[in-house]
Amino acid sequence: MTTFTINNKEYTHKELNLLYDLFTTDQWNTIIETLEHKVEEINNFGDDEVYTYDEIITTIQQLWRSSY
Question: Which of 16, 23, 31, 38 is placed for a possible disulfide with 27 were both Cys, Cβ 3.0 to 4.6 Å?
Fold first, then answer.
């Protein structure tokens, strides 16, 4: 069985599809847009928190690439 590693955890293709299906495409896009807006805000103020939001965006993108 093929597994995918996301956030140092192993997931099956079926598990990733289940996670992906929790939200609609529009909802996923809203989540990403909100996170990207937050990153932009933080960049404007020079805060180091941006890495946390970038990691979240990267994790979501990994999920997208590995599902379906």
Answer: 23
Model confidence pLDDT, tens digit, residues 29-38:
999 999 888 8
Cα–Cα distance measured from residue 19 to residue 3, given in angstroms and rounded to the nearest whole number: 14
pTM: 0.70
* Residue bearing tokens 């990267």: 58
12 phi/psi in degrees, rounded to 5: -80, 165
DSSP 17-52: HHHHTTS-HHHHHHHHHHHHHHHHHHHHHT-TTHHH
Question: Taking Cα atoms as reference points, which of 28, 29, 35, 32 lies closest to residue 50?
Answer: 35
